[in-house]
Amino acid sequence: MKQRTILNAAALLLVAQSVGFASSASAASMKPLKVFILAGQSNMQGQGIVTMKDDNGQEKPGTLTSMLKDPAKAPLLKGWVNAKGEWNEKREDVWVWDVNEFGNRHGILAFGYGWNLGDRQWFGPEMQFGHVMGKQFDNQVLIIKTAWGGRDLYKDFRPPSSGGTVGPFYKEMISTVKMVLGDLKTQFPDYAGGGYKIEGFVWWHGWNDFCSPDKGTPEYEKNLINLINDVRKDLNVPKLPVVIGEFTGPWGHDCKEAPAVTIRKAQKAVAERPEFAKTVTFVETHDFVRPEKESPTGEGYHEFKNGETYFLLGDAFGKAMLKLITK
Question: Which of 320, 321, 157 is nearest to 224 (CA)?
């Protein structure tokens, strides 16, 4: 009889514990989603490479797989692999809704939200950005990434306040965010109805305006100011925190291409405007660019598709965003 009493007590304790766990999980799921918008062109789409072989079947330098073999770099990826060294990069507590010119994809954070949607060979800044946010918050995190290759700010993303025809990709960016947030249960069946809060906007962009030195380059500062103000207005978040990622391409700190230098200076100047104090920040990224010989490809306009570069970008964007939203 005494033994049965002990067993019953143990069973009750387990039930009480499971109820407590369920209540805790339910409470967490009912918290508002932390929503972050990542926008730009092909670089923001995600050109980082997980693995790529050369003609001899050897892993190319600059991929994530090659990083794992480097004792100095492998620790950076400790949150993306398991004890056996196998990829374990997925996060159930971070959702992604991604659109580019090839279609859209949504689900939990994982490889495959890069340039070639669904192909696990590719990833972008959303990966480490998502890990940074997932570790920071008990709330479910949602990243909405709107990035289309070869689109400039002068015309394609042209904000309403700049005058002229509003850019079609500005309009699609805003409509995508509203569509996803207006139908969360359909997009993410595990959504428990806790509402959402748009926490931040990350803009990483510049190549096509650099390629337009007569139009895009000289207007970049004005258009970026208007972009921030118009996004805040159209999403009804007047003080929306904004991270501006420095235009990189193949250049490090010693970039001498005049249009590229102009765009970099414009991006920094926008973040330093008094009206944007404590709500907009500029993130230098030039030190993340690795040489072509240390990278998988020769595509300088995509930072040579270097996996380490894209990891560091996401990490820097995430940490910069946290500084803005936790002040």
Answer: 157
